[in-house]
Each structure stands twice: as structure tokens, then as C-alpha cells.
Amino acid sequence: MANQWFRMYSEFATDAKVQMMSEAMQRRYLMLMCLRCSNALVTLHDEEIAFQLRISDEELAETKALFIKKGFIDSAWNLLNWEKRQFASDSSKERVAKHRALQKQKQEQASNCDVTLHETKANGLDTDTDTEQSIGAPSAKSPRGTALPKDWTLPGDWKTWAEKERPDVDVVTVAESFRDFWIAKPGKDGRKADWQATWRNWVRNQRAQTFRKAAPAGDIWAGAVN
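User: That's the sequence. What structure does it adopt?
Assistant: C-alpha cells below.
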């Protein structure tokens, strides 16, 4: 793959095989690297290579023989160890693509975090609302059971049901005894999975209340033995 740049190692300045050549030969070696980097070298013929290096055919033959002797190239002008020294990851196109993909992934993760945080806050608000509503009427069904809130008050629909079910009892008084009993109940015994069902059973088990009619004031001694 063609590339706009290639790896140039610092050992070029200290490698005896390179530095024992003339500056003209060193320049030609660098030019071959540039041509190989752009993939032009693999398609060029000797005359075209000579033109790219700005040298004659005789100078090209001399250059080729020297580079083969030093192990820089083979007879087909292929730079030896090129693939070993250059890496596929050096392609700027691939690096840019990877960088953009990474940035996109980070943006998506940040966006997902924002959505999750928003949903968490929204759920938190909903939970608060549910808690406020449950003060009057505990959760109808909870697998683990819940305790009766200390500020529990009798819900209207519970009161209506009780008055129809047991017209012979004072529902308000029954509700007060219900609340006091279960608030004082400690531990797991004071937790119920269905408080509405507990209330219905409580009402059904109430004894009938009899209300004595007060005697008229004038009959206060009625029935007294003389």
C-alpha cells in the first residue's frame, strides 16, 4: 500500500555499509526508499529508475551492482528487509480510521452514560412519588413484606369497604387499633406482603359492637326497688 512517509532509522548515520558510500550513493539509496514507499519502484523499469534518480544508464548499473553487493536490494530492485522495517500500522489512512473509530466509540459511551444517568434520576423521582403515595396505602403486594408506616392513615376505599362489610362496627376506631397494633409489632411479625388483605381480615375478625341507648333523665330511677 502506498504511503506518504516511511520509517527512517537513526542507524543510517552510523551504519558502516551506508557511510562508506559516497554522498551521491547515499542519496540514491534514500531515493529508492522514497520510490518504494509510494509503490512506484515495483512498477518502474531500469530506464525509468535512472530518470527518477537523475543518473545515466551507466551510473544506474554501477549503483545497482553496489547496492546488491551491500545487501540493500535484489536483482529486481526490491529493497531487502523493507517489510521488516516498515509496518502496516504505519499507514496514515489506517491510523486515522482507527483514531476516528475510537473517538466515535468514546462519544457513544459518553452518550450512553448520559442517558443512563438521566434514567436513574428519573427513576429516583418516580420512587419518591411512590413513597409519598404509599404513606396512606402500603404497597398492596411486596414479596419480602413491608412494615406499616408510623403515619399511616386509613385510605378512603379501605374505609368504604369496611363500612359496607361491617356496618356494626366503628370503622374509625377499628382503624386506630389496627394502626397501633401493627406499628408496635416488632421484627418480621410486623411486616406484611399485602396490607389491604391484612386490613380486611382485621375488620372481619372484629366483634360486633353494641351501643346502649341512654335512658331519659326522668327515668334515672326506673326499675329501682322501693
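The longest helix spans residues 92-134.
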